[in-house]
Structure formats: structure tokens, C-alpha cells
Amino acid sequence: MQLQINPGDELPIYRQIMRQITDAIVGGHMKPGDKLASHRELAAQLVIAPLTVKKAYDELESEGLIHTQRGRGTFISEEPPVLRPAEARERLRDAARRLLTQARLSGVPYDDVTGLLEEIWEDMKP
Q: Which end of the chain is less crowded, N or C, counting CB atoms within 10 A of the terminal residue's CB?
């Protein structure tokens, strides 16, 4: 999988890495057991500091999406994390609030937002 970063993006680089890996997992482009590039390899490929990649990997690991095996590497987790329904709903609520705030600030009509959500939902199907 080829990751790309945009230094001008408002999202920090480590979050861009996290988002792309998460999207690849959800979209079926990365499967359980797939090996990720090492911190150093990915940092060299993206021309960024290895600690930035480490931070992204540490966050993904704390979310249960990946796991590291000492001496072997970092892999996509076999079992995706399962959140309690209340916690999942709260996370979605926070994400929805950020999305709708950005849409309002940008002047994007609500119907366009729902259209984009449907489009992305379809793109994410494996």
C-alpha cells in the first residue's frame, strides 16, 4: 500500500497516516495479518521523521487496529476492536459534529453533505 502525505493539510501528518491505514483496512485493501512497513521504511518513503510514523502506529495500536510483534514487524490485527454501543455512538457523534461544523463554515448545504457521505460509504465497501 502506498501512503501519501500532504504537508499543507490541516490534519497532522501522523493523523494522515492513521486515516489512510484505517481507510485501507475498512475498504478491504489491507487485510488481517498484512504486514506494514517499519517505522524507518515508511519514514524514508514519505520523507518524514521516523517518530512521526511511530506516533501514528502507536495510536493505531492503542485503538486495536494493528499490533507489533517484537523482531517480526507490525501487522493488521486479526480481530478488529469492538466498542460498546454507547462509546461507538459517542465517537460517531463527535465526528458528525466536526463534519457538520466544517460544512457550515464552508457553506456546503446539508444535502451535499449527505450525498458525500453516501458516496464515501459506497467507496468503502470491500
A: C
